[in-house]
Amino acid sequence: MLPFWIALQFLSSLPIRLPGMPTPEQLGRSLLFYPLVGLLFGIILWTFNWLMLGAPLLLHAALLLTAWVLLSGALHLDGLADSADAWLGGFGDRERTLTIMKDPRSGPIAVVALVLVLLLKFCALLALIEQSHALALIIVPLIGRTALLGLFLTTPYVRAGGLGQALADHLPRSAGKQIMVASAVVCVLIAGFGGVLALALAAAMFVWLRQMMLRRLGGTTGDTAGALLELLEVAVLVGLAFF
């Protein structure tokens, strides 16, 4: 179960402490547990939502969004901010885009992207609470982290060395595909038609964002993976709120 604890330590702000550095093989296998971490996040959010039933709706949605961000340590929001700055500032140039993504500072485009994504998430959560569609809280984090597994399965990693390269090089691909299928089945079993709709929205968003990465960079980085997760989650939440 060490790969699971590695995945949980990396993807969450939960107090997980592992002795020593994991091997590249263990890092690669940890990707297989990303959907399970997403499911755990979803159960935590669903439980928190249930505990807040009866609270003022605006406060309810704000606290739920805060818990969502804190649970992941804003890891993927950081990737979104870096990607937003790089995509505009890179002017279509691959090397310039990659260089900007390595800059820890956030420009105005990053701030705008973060504000818009969090605003959309907040409004979608508010609508879903009003509609009593709490099951979305379980399946959206699951789909988002399954998308990360899918990204590393299908897309070259363009930065040599580091954590992302170890994940990409040592991911057991056959097992990864089976886990993706199992995750899709779990979503449908949990949410029925809502699960099917969520998967369709996620698939469309995944294909579009992946094509953007391939055209600009020839593959993915850790930052663009985080951006993909955040944008995909927002798209699914908004879509479910409409239907």
Measured on Cα atoms, how large is the radius of gyration? 17 Å
What is the total number of structural domains?
1
Alpha plus pi helix count: 12
**H-E string:** HHHHHHHHHHHH
Q: How far is it from the N-terminal to the C-terminal residue, by CA? A: 38 Å
Category by helix and strand content: mainly alpha
What sort of overall outline do the alpha carbons produce when their principal axes are compared?
globular
The mean pLDDT is: 94
Strand % is under 5%
The total beta strand count reads 0
Give the % helix: over 70%
Characterize the main sheet: none
Written description of the protein model:
The chain has 243 residues and is an all-alpha fold. The protein has one domain (32-242). Helix content is 78%, strand content 0%. Helix 3 (34-51) packs antiparallel against helix 4 (57-72), helix 8 runs antiparallel to helix 12 and helix 10 (173-191) packs antiparallel against helix 11. The protein is globular. It starts with a helix and ends with a helix.
